[in-house]
Amino acid sequence: MKRLSVIILLMLLSFTLVAQDVTLNVGGMLLTRYRYTANETPSNTFGIRTARLQFSGRVLDEFAYNLQFKMDGTPNSINGPRVLEASVEWQKYKAFRVKAGQIKRAFAFETHMSPIDQGFYLQGMAIYKLAGYNDRVGEQSSTGRDLGIMVQGDLFEYDDRSILHYMAGIYNGQGINVADLNNSKDIMGGFWVSPVQDMRIGVSGWRGRYGRKYEGAYAEVDRNRYAISFDYTPGDWTVRSEYVHSNGFAFKNPYGGNLDIDTELGDKADAWYALMIAPLVPETLHAKLRYDVYRDNGAWDRTYTAYDFGLDFHVTSHLIFSAFGSYVNDRRLAAGRHNYFMFDLQMGLRF
Fold first, then answer.
1. At 170, which helix (H) or strand (E)?
2. Which residues fall within 8 angstroms of residue 230, CB to CB, at 6 or more apart?
3. Is domain 22-350 in CATH 3.20.20.10, yes or no?
4. I need a surface site. Which of 1, 212, 266, 307 has the fewest CB within 10 A?
5. Within 10 A of 317 (CB to CB), how many other CB atoms are there?
6. How far is CA 99 from CA 70, 87, 88, 151, 317, in A?
7. How would residue 74 be classed by pLDDT, with cut points 50, 70 and 90?
8. pLDDT of res. 284
9. How much helix, strand and coil, in percent to the nearest 5, is found in the chain?
10. Are 187 and 207 in contact (CB under 8 A)?
């Protein structure tokens, strides 16, 4: 036993010597929830919104790496435990950085926020349905990520902030952990400006295609989108709003199954949200409001509208308890059943 301990110690010392220019940080997050939905078929359930493990660090000061794993979900399913991010970024210059691997798409604001920092029980529908989370086209859940390469940078420093941030990327267009199915690539990019401290106003665009194979056949749909984004975060306050417009058809069945395209739904969709998070007790207790709209055919006859409200309590910066209520009007449901209420409790832990 002593010999084994000595061997392990020598191995660790050897790793330290070899990896003296490498740093390693281990972290993660856990979001658990209870949800009650009072619609036509009432339901209540406990669940895990997300459980993640992350390994990150630096190599030779100029490179940053990030490995992030999703630990929840049904094993051996496309949305089960899997790699979320595997990236390396060259960061020698703040004005020009290059990131490659399985990375966030260069699109919108909320895409780049962690589930805890995003602030509500779920991303706004503009992000959830039109930015690669539970995407309208039928792509597997990809948390706003794809395989590709991007450049980004901050320019024109003034008053301890960057006046301009830009980002641009080339991606497979198939989401995470899936090989490319065609020779085309998705092109994305955008920028934001900061006219005053703590304020960002941005635009971004996305031009690409999502493909699917089934029994030797292949089909694809266009995915052409743009986003207009705004946020303002003075002190402990948050005001944020985004609008996303999409052109392109969707597959009838999500995550595969066949190649049927939903032509009846049409090739247009849009969504927008506006939210405010206000401190009742600074850094500890917050009140939250959000107006969230999604039109899966770009018209009012199939509009999903949610009026969200809630509170969160920060025990520490690492442990947060949240309670949300939501009054939903979903015109896609049968007449007389459009309206229902939802209640959501969450506990968020990050380490």
1. strand 161-171
2. 199, 200, 201, 202, 239, 240, 241, 242
3. no
4. 1
5. 8
6. 21, 7, 6, 6, 28
7. confident
8. 97
9. 10, 55, 35
10. yes
**What is the pTM (predicted TM-score) of this model?**
0.91
Residue 78 CB-density burial (10 A; 0-12 exposed, 13-18 middle, 19+ buried): middle
Report the DSSP beta bridge partners of residue 155.
Answer: 164
**What gap in Å lies between CA 137 and CA 60, rounded to an integer?**
41
For 142-168, b where at least 16 C-beta lie within 10 A, e where not — what string?
A: bbbbbbbebbbbbeeeeeeebeebbbb
State pLDDT tens for residues 294-307. Answer: 999 999 999 999 99
Q: Which residues, 6+ apart, have CB-to-CB distance to 312 below 8 Å?
A: 119, 285, 286, 288, 320, 321, 322, 323
β partners of residue 164? 155, 193
Lowest mean per-residue pLDDT among 18-27, 196-205, 270-279, 285-294: 18-27
CA distance 214 to 58: 41
Helix or strand or coil: residue 296? coil
> For 43, phi and psi rounded to 5 degrees?
-145, 155
Name the β-bridge partners of 98: 90, 151
pLDDT tens digits, one per residue of 13-23: 344 444 568 89
Dihedral (C-alpha) 342, 318, 51, 41: value to the nearest 10 degrees?
-10
What the block records as the tokens of 45 is 């359930």
Report the distance separating Cα 37 and Cα 111, nearest Å.
26
The token duo for 146 is 């794809």
Task: Map out the domains of the chain as residue ranges.
Answer: 22-350
Of the candidates 295, 319, 338, 343, which has an alpha carbon nearest to the alpha carbon of residue 31?
319
* C-alpha 230 chain-centroid distance: 17
Burial class (CB in 10 A: 0-12, 13-18, 19+), 276: middle
Average pLDDT over residues 32-61: 94
How far apart are alpha carbons 328 and 314 in whole angstroms? Answer: 27
b/e map of 59-70 (b: 16 or more CB within 10 Å)?
eeeebbbbbbbb
Tokens of 333: 């449901």
User: Structure tokens of 309?
Assistant: 């409200």
Q: How far apart are CA 263 and CA 72, in angstroms?
A: 34
Rg (CA), the chain: 22
